[in-house]
Amino acid sequence: MRVRIDESMSHDLERDLAAAVAASEAKANDTPRNISNTAEGVNGPAALRKQLRRTGFVPLPVIGKAPPLEGWSLKTETNDGEIDLWSSLYHYAPSTGVSTQKLPAIDLDILNEEAAEAAEALVRERFEEKGYILVRIGRAPKRAIPFARIVRSRKSRST
What we know:
The chain is α+β, with helices and mostly antiparallel strands. It contains four helices and six strands. Helices cover 34% and strands 14% of the residues. A hairpin with a 5-residue loop joins strand 5 (136-137) and strand 6 (143-146).
């Protein structure tokens, strides 16, 4: 399963994800950043994918819902060099997806609009104080709500 960001989705969700990624980086580096997935260059797909990677996500180029990479579902990491290579190899896949193999998400495959909204409201009620809630609506009213994974470093103890 993956959360995708493509031209058919609301630009608001793409902007919100970009803002969340930029805010996460700014908090870590104290330097604000602006990213976009609409043009090549500094603000192009590769830039978004690199920022997603730096903040702990595993980005993937996608066409609609499908990544063009063979074996994409087994992919657990990437690097800046590979992301740059995608711009050439998969130039026809300018949209960006995020692998959820290591990313917890609530997948609300509910076809009843009221029930889907109620489930989303429950998630917001329980988790909104923990941070920004992103909601990806695919085939409405179905939706997915990804969560950030907190990785704590283990401190070594000397005896």
